[in-house]
Amino acid sequence: MSAITTEVLQTIAFEAALQYHPPDEIELRYNLPTGTFEQMLDEPRFSAMVAAARREIDETGAQTRLVAKRLTAQLVPEIARIVSDPRAAHRDRIDAFKALATVAGVNKDEANTGNAFAIQINLNQ
Description:
Elements: H1 6-18, H2 23-29, H3 36-42, H4 44-60, H5 62-84, H6 90-104, H7 108-111
Helix pairs in contact: 1-4, 5-6
């Protein structure tokens, strides 16, 4: 484990804490020999790093957002199917289109252009 930089070690600890990727994928991603990840988990220093990352994840809600993004990505094809299905109810197609546009970020920039204005009318009686 001494050949791995502290920064990479912290990244691997964070990924271990997320529990998003299986050990074999983590080993492939970081070019670790097979079984190295399991050995790392047995080391007290690395276990402490994983525990610290887990606390950070719990405090920030990072795992919840990650899971939501994963589920959203899996549902996009189904939403697109509803949008393009002429047999689907109009309301369902419109709702699916809105959901798809939200996921894609369509009109996000237009909504925040700052071109809005406000009018204030004061009536003195």
